[in-house]
Hints:
139 residues, 4-stranded mixed sheet, globular
Amino acid sequence: MDYETVSAAAFGASLRGLGLNLLVRDVEAQAARLSGLFGMQAHRVSRDFAILAYGTQLFQLHADATYAAHPLSGLLPETPPRGAGVQINLFDTDPDDAAARAETLGFTILQPPTDKPHGLRECYLLCDDGYAWVPSRPL
């Protein structure tokens, strides 16, 4: 599927399994940060929407304005952090490499790379929309 040209209806009909849709204040900036830090492929990037690919996984970024008639729009906080409590694990990303570049791309390091008892080395990186991005590798 060509994510740059697929229609919204065809893209929507193709989605299967678990979907992730993140509401962000600035789609273009967030897509650039995620691409720069995690090597994600960004498609259809606009002020309102982007498709992001991390390996074989897809997810979407939407601007607040696209949710004008959505039932969640009234729940968006006016002040950050917005994504508090959301942890997005990136199991195929080196946490040491990500942490070394995180601050230059606008992420806050909540926890530096650490070996965890559950068998992963991971770090916690907070984006300006309040989502916790967790690059991880097996020990």
